[in-house]
Amino acid sequence: MNALVVLAAILFILMTVIGKGKGVRSFFALFFNFAVIFITIIFLNDPNVNPITMTIIACIFISIINLFYINDVNKTTKTAFLSTVISTVILLVFIFIVTDKARIQGFGEEEIQELGMFSLYIGVDFVKIASAVIIMSTIGAITDAAIAISSPMREIHFHNPDISRQELFKSGLSIGRDILGTSTNTLFFAFFGSYLALLIWFKDLTYTPGEIINSKIFSAEMITILCAGIGVTLVIPITSWITAYYLVARK
Amino acid sequence: MNSFINLFKNMSYKRIISLSLFVLFIVASIVFVQHNHFLYERPIAKVLETELVDKTATENPFGHKDALFTQRLIAEIKNGEEKGRLIHLVNEFSVSKAYDHEFEAGDELFVSIDSENAENGDIHGSIQDVKRDTYLLYVAWVFVLVLLIVGRKQGLFSIISLVINAILLSYALDIYLSNPHWSLLLISSFAVVLFTVISLLLVNGLNEKTYAAIIATLLGTFASLFIAWLVLWLTTEKGLRYEELQFITRPYQVVFLTGLFLGSLGAVMDIAITMSSSIFNMIEKNPKIPVKALIKSGMEIGKDIMGTMTNILFFVYISGSIPILILYFKNGSPLGFALSMNLSLELARALAGGIGIVLTIPIGLYVTIFFIKRKRAGL
């Protein structure tokens, strides 16, 4: 039996038993998200498609799946959706500038031997693709933070309908601060886990600290981790403000 | 603007001084990293002028069009014996820039000095790499500032937690590399206990919620590791392609399993602390709430968070493979081959992490209830 099929079956059973209907939807959401990534990759193969535009479209679809399909279409998920898209676009501009300047796109010299049989001149813009990768790694965490903030904010507004926009914004920020530690931790460890092999390898290569810091692979990893942290943090004020703006009408 | 001035008026002198020191420190570090060439033994050159001299259209065997450009650069050497002299460099780059770069005036490069023209004193060299430390520092400062401004105290704790965990991980890897006969899984099991205790204490402080979350995290991670290991053993790892890990000269199955274990740890901690804090909160609001009601509400909370958490891991793992998948597709690789070569390990990690996340929901719930029952019996 294929190990991946067995793992997927175990996950499906656990999600169904523990999560019931919502668990089943969450499991299928993983598949839909995989399909979105796969279709995005197919489109990215076309040199005439701008990878940045394509990434924004992909992020919109992913947010629709994560927010509207797993949950419902309601005020909470709508504001979370808007916040996710706005945060993604802001973050993407920042990431693109950094990727372009620091020249962390494509493959490092340590990886290039493995790719010897491939032609690297394939006409697609790897700087934009590298920016797409960073934002796509973080999109799951961004939608998570957006819904985790807008949902209790709606509760607060429901229980205190007279709350001012400023007050509601502040309580959104404070909810966001409470989840900040755990969401950054989730991302950091996920990246540590996925970079573990490369870290061991870097240590084996006996590079000097200067060589490590300036190498493409290491700096690309560090910048990815830092940008992910910036992303899940920036979504806090953005979501708080948008939710407060939508829930409380101007007096 | 007025509120900005008021903000300053309301601050104590102590705060203003520490704030200015902090700003000064940021500026100093940026100035330093822009002038740290003396730290490096490799010659560094700053590009002054660029000139595009050649353009050739190329087409790879699969009909993908690209173009190769040749750039002549004049740069100034910033360190070493040749400091201050000009160096001539030639750079080739393509449209795709998968393994090459286009340079502009102001870029700093590591170069090697090849020859010296005796007649006019020009140095010729070749480009080795890009000096990236400045950009790394800029992004690091943006990260620190965003986390501090938005997150305040919690932001500071997140930064501390990242730094401590990174140092701890690096130290654990050093122990493994100097004692290769020790099991990496055993070393990282110790590290995982430390990671969990440190991170959860930083996130949530010293209290019963944290203790319950620590126990739930450890049970959840080790349970998911055990399941993953059992599945890999029973299926004889069919469907997993380790080729992408073969560059390391270490037993890569163990490295993969450790990465899987470590990668899901943050998500499992998140679930554990969410479960324990929300159940403790319910008790605080209504101390007489029956255990049955707690279990019911706990499961409802778990349902809400399991989907988004599995998604977070999924995107972190899968997205990294996008560039290499494009390279495979563009080089005429069959779909199934490209996917299994580059995604099998990532998918296994994401699925095993998902199993850990979902398992931690009931584990976290019952561990917390155990703590609550003990507390009630003691009262």
TrEMBL record, chain A:
The chain crosses the membrane at residues 29-45, 52-69, 81-99, 179-202, 222-248. InterPro entries: UCP031503_TM, YibE_F. It comes from the Bacteria. Pfam families: YibE_F. Keywords: Membrane, Transmembrane, Transmembrane helix. This is YibE/F family protein. It comes from Mesobacillus subterraneus.
